[in-house]
Write a structure and sequence with these properties.
- This protein folds into two domains: 29 residues, no CATH class; 162 residues, 2-enoyl-CoA Hydratase, Chain A, domain 1 (Alpha-Beta Complex), CATH 3.90.226.
- It has seven helices and nine strands; from the N terminus they run ββαβαβαβαββααβαβ.
- Strands 3, 4, 5, 6, 7, 8 and 9 form a seven-stranded mixed sheet that branches. A two-stranded antiparallel ribbon has the order 1-2.
- The N and C termini lie far apart (37 Å).
- InterPro entries: ClpP, ClpP/crotonase-like_dom_sf, ClpP/TepA, ClpP_His_AS, ClpP_Ser_AS.
- It is an enzyme of class 3 (hydrolase).
Length: 195
């Protein structure tokens, strides 16, 4: 029998009695965010709304835990842009696996505040597209757009890791899997936790 989303007791300020709320809402109140799935428009909009709301409350750091196989590029870039826009620093923490767009969001955390758990894995690569047919001109336009997105992602990785653009560009030609320590050496994270 699945346990569903666990509930925890929480006392709202001004109330005597505790109420039961799901654990994620409780953690949001502590400024802890999670990406535990592929990036799509729905989770992107939810995370953006949480970042904006919590940054409006105060300027304490946000903690963004990432365990994601990647996902859509445009919704991921929207999350990244919001991370750069909000006033509080966003500490990114890789637990499990941060692949593709997950690694892009991981590198987007506040520099010096990007962490990987010791057994975490990170993977970077170039964006991919699936062409479903259609007219040749449409395929060409999509390919041109894909190249523009690749350039954006490459420049961000280079800027945030301190690696030369040509090194990042070569790395993104294929899937590059890294341990937490290798991700630190590569500049994607600043610290491996518990070391």
């Amino acid at each position: 029998m699945p346990i569903g989303v666990p509930k925890v007791p929480f006392r709202t300020v001004g109330y005597r009695r505790k109420s039961w709320i799901d654990i994620y809402n409780r953690l949001y109140r502590e400024r802890v965010l999670f990406l535990g799935q592929g990036v799509d428009s729905t989770i992107s909009n939810q995370l953006i709304a949480l970042m904006l709301y919590l940054s409006h409350e105060n300027e304490k750091d946000l903690y963004f835990f990432i365990n994601s196989p990647g996902g859509w590029v445009i919704p991921g870039i929207a999350i990244y842009d919001t991370m750069q826009f909000v006033r509080p620093d966003i500490q990114t923490i890789c637990m499990g696996f941060a692949a593709s767009m997950g690694s892009f969001l991981l590198v987007g955390g506040a520099i010096t505040k990007r962490i990987a758990f010791p057994h975490a894995r990170v993977m970077i690569h170039q964006p991919a597209a699936i062409f479903f047919g259609g007219q040749v001109t449409e395929v060409i336009l999509e390919a041109e757009e894909l190249l523009k997105l690749r350039e954006v992602l490459t420049r961000v990785y280079a800027q945030r890791t301190g690696k030369p653009l040509w090194v990042v560009s070569e790395d993104m030609e294929r899937d590059v899997f890294m341990s937490a320590t290798e991700a630190q050496t590569h500049g994607i994270v600043d610290l491996v936790a518990f070391e």
